[in-house]
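Any chance you could type out a protein's amino acid sequence plus the matching backbone structure tokens because I've never seen that pairing?

——
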Amino acid sequence: MFVRLSSKLLDLLNNGLVPCVPLRGSISASGDLSPLSYVAGAICGHPDVRVFDTKNKEVLYATEAIEKYKLNKITLAAKEGLGLVNGTAFSASAGCLAFYDALNLASTSLAATAMTVEAMVGQVGSFDQFIHDVTRPHAGQIAAAAFVRSLLAGSKLAVSEEGEVAIQDDVGILRQDRYALRTSAQWIGPQLESLALARSQIEAELNSTTDNPLLDVEGDKIHHGGNFQAMAITQAMESTRLVLEHLGKLSFSQVTELINCSMNRGLPSCLAGDEPSTNYHTKGLDIHSAAYCSELGYLANPVSTHVQSTEMHNQSVNSLALISARKTIESNDVLSLLLGTHLYCAAQAIDLRIADVKFQAQVRQLLNEQIKKHFGSALQGKDLEKLQHKVFVALLKRLEETASSDSGPRFEDASRHIMGHLMETVVPLIAINPGVAASLGSFQKEFLEGSLSLYRSIRKATTTGNDNLADAKENMGSTIVIYQCIRGELGVSVRRGDVAEGKHGRSVGGNVSRIVTALRDGRLVKAVGEAAGYVKIGEQNGAARGGISDPRSMHGHGGSFY
């Protein structure tokens, strides 16, 4: 029986014919009776069942398709009809596809977290092995921390070693990352464990017999049972959908930190590539992210709590597994929108951060030269170095506090601000060296002009250049593979803005859409896998849907987990 029916199903598929099946109508209790009956009708050539001809992109009646491709109809024998329709094939297959995509999104969430740590000059120490492997050895937490740690290896943006800081230099400094970064491994870890359980449930279902009755050929006995009840799939889907919501909440929190200039450690408001007063760049994405996060929260509600008794109370409990799988697929779509938004913001933030690192190095040199030029006659040696350091720290703090302002007013304010710190040291020297007083005004004017020009030139070069790849390679960790995919393969460049460019460019939404599409078709997932050290796509069994080739193995990251 099995061979005969399988042969007929393969005849359809090998000719590119897919039965058209209702999306709704199954309660997944006595199996997925309704959708599977349409599959049975297709191989039997039922005159009112349709199939989709994938070769010619048209819908045909089953009778037309069988005649067109010269296939033989089948007349079902005893038990064959029941064997075709009385099982969980649809629920299990939909659940399997939903789970696969969810697993790839979990990996992407970890990658987006690593890129956010870099963009936020976050602490690699939050993912240290001692914290996760030794003191709190949850399997998922260990795997999550190791994943992020591997992506951050070699990064010059993330803080690998936290040095001692003098207390006077520590005032107002965020010494520990906020929870969205610092506890991300503890947050994602349990989600990985839930996915591991869901995987085992789905794999068991895929390798099960769910028909009724069951024939024990060796024992010469017929068994009447209920293996068609698909609650195992429902449970896997409900937990997976909750995982997707938790991943979405973390992503939303990280996006908020990247965009909000009061939280992002000196990056411009809304990650503006030009002046913030005319560039609201990611404000719309901030709103979109909130909408996605809210929708994920709604979809995380269980489907199984809405069971209705049916078939005259024979099917008084029914799993609704196919409905739950469909809702999980929907959640995957929403989370891919959120993670695509997240990756877009992270890439922009990294470019701006690298520009800021370059600016800080050069403005420090400028500041030291100006202080030495104007006050070197009165201060020398360690006294001069102490003043230079003091003023530089004050400058960086002030610039971080005023990141929402346009560059002109921002640097005017900063130059005035550092004068107070400068005068604390310089004014007492006027009695000894009266010429120092005249240098105060000239210092402020020259430093303002020089620092503002330097800032604008670096920012313009970063946001108008065709290629920031060399700087990114120098500063990023293994996340550079993902950055290259976004900036190179997908063609999503750093954005300066239509006002600054004086013309319309590709929209923000259009760029995010490119990332989302690549996330869904597997190109970005492939980059995530390669960045984390996975086997390349196509070398093992993962090529079919374009994702990570073997998500069961965390190679080099704490052993096998999935």
Summary: The longest helix spans residues 321-375. The radius of gyration is 31 Å. DSSP finds 20 helices and seven strands in the chain. Residues 374 and 443 are 6 Å apart (CA to CA).
